[in-house]
Specification:
It is built from 7 helices and 13 strands. By secondary structure, it is of the alpha+beta class. The protein folds into 2 domains: 211 residues, UDP-n-acetylglucosamine1-carboxyvinyl-transferase, Chain; 76 residues. The strands form 4 sheets. The chain has a 4-stranded mixed beta sheet. A 4-stranded mixed beta sheet has the order 10-12-11-13, with helices on one face. A 3-stranded antiparallel beta sheet has the order 1-3-2, with no helix packed on it. A hairpin with a 4-residue loop joins strand 8 and strand 9. Helix 4 crosses helix 6 and helix 6 packs parallel to helix 7.
């Protein structure tokens, strides 16, 4: 939907979340669809809970002040990352987006990752994204409300222990790694019955695995930033601590909407290098070494 809104190209998708215990669209996915629909004045069919098919035909991107309530503690970051490419790269006026939902949710970037890794890295390529948490509610867990302000202008390690005030329950560990040329982040969430020591250990192990590869980007930032690099006017090259299936899938999906070339050197699950050339034809090469 990000690419569809940005490039004004409709699409239809089948078998959404096929094979899952609960297939089809869930509330957080539906929130992404409806947010994209609103900012682009899109024509949409299949936007209901449990739907396995979706047709999306976008219109023109509109700036403004938006409020999206997921209705559960589902991931606000998924909604945000669905709509920000179109808002940031479409040259619209300053836009404010307020999201109500979860900010520290399994299998999605947490608020601290977006604010301390994703957003600063976008700024290096001329994109200004400011994030803040403005309030929280106890009934839905850790944090509930995320506010984003967006405009477009296209190894020593320090540890800081933070006490986070919240009426809800929850634990998490976020390690922020900063080098001369890059940023990385590693998050682990707690769970009922999970010791705090284990939460910290898991985050430390993720950082260790990244650090000793000598790569620039962590595996999460790698698949999140390629859409923006594909839209730039010049070639980009980066090393990643792990080539993920998510990264390879995103590279292929971008090619369905936008002509560009990419080259991946390395094997899935291992460190590698990615080269993106936005000005080339839709040619792709993957080298397994």
């Amino acid at each position: 939907m990000s690419l569809s809104c940005l490039l004004q190209k409709p699409f239809k998708i089948y078998d959404i979340r096929r094979g899952r215990r609960k297939p089809g669209l869930m509330p957080q996915h539906l929130a992404c669809v409806r947010a994209a629909k609103l900012i682009s004045n899109a024509h949409v069919t299949g936007d209901i809970i449990g739907s396995a098919e979706l047709f999306f035909s976008p219109g023109k991107i509109k700036s403004g002040d938006y409020l999206f309530d997921i209705g559960t503690a589902g991931s606000t970051s998924l909604v945000l990352q669905t709509i920000i490419p179109a808002v940031l790269l479409s040259k619209v006026e300053k836009t404010t987006i307020t999201l109500i939902g979860g900010t520290h949710v399994p299998f999605s970037p947490c608020f601290h990752y977006l604010a301390n890794v994703f957003s600063p890295m976008l700024k290096l390529i001329g994109i200004d994204l400011t994030l803040s948490i403005v309030s929280c509610r106890q009934k839905d867990g850790f944090f509930r409300k995320l506010r984003a302000f967006m405009t477009d202008s296209i190894c020593p390690v320090d540890f800081e222990i933070m006490n986070v005030s919240t009426p809800g329950q929850g634990t998490f560990c976020f390690l922020h790694a900063e080098s001369a040329e890059s940023l990385a982040g590693f998050t682990t969430l707690g769970a009922r019955g999970k010791k705090a020591e284990l939460v910290g250990q898991e985050a430390a192990e993720e950082f260790r695995d990244y650090y000793f590869t000598g790569s620039a980007l962590d595996p999460h930032l790698s698949d999140q930033i390629i859409l923006y690099l594909a839209m730039c006017g010049e070639e980009s090259v980066f090393s990643t601590s792990r080539i993920t299936e998510h990264l390879l899938t995103n590279l292929r999906v971008i090619g369905l909407f936008h002509k560009y070339s990419y080259e991946v050197r390395g094997e899935p699950g291992k460190p590698g290098t990615v080269r993106i050339n936005p000005s080339s034809n839709n040619k792709k090469d993957i080298y397994m070494e």
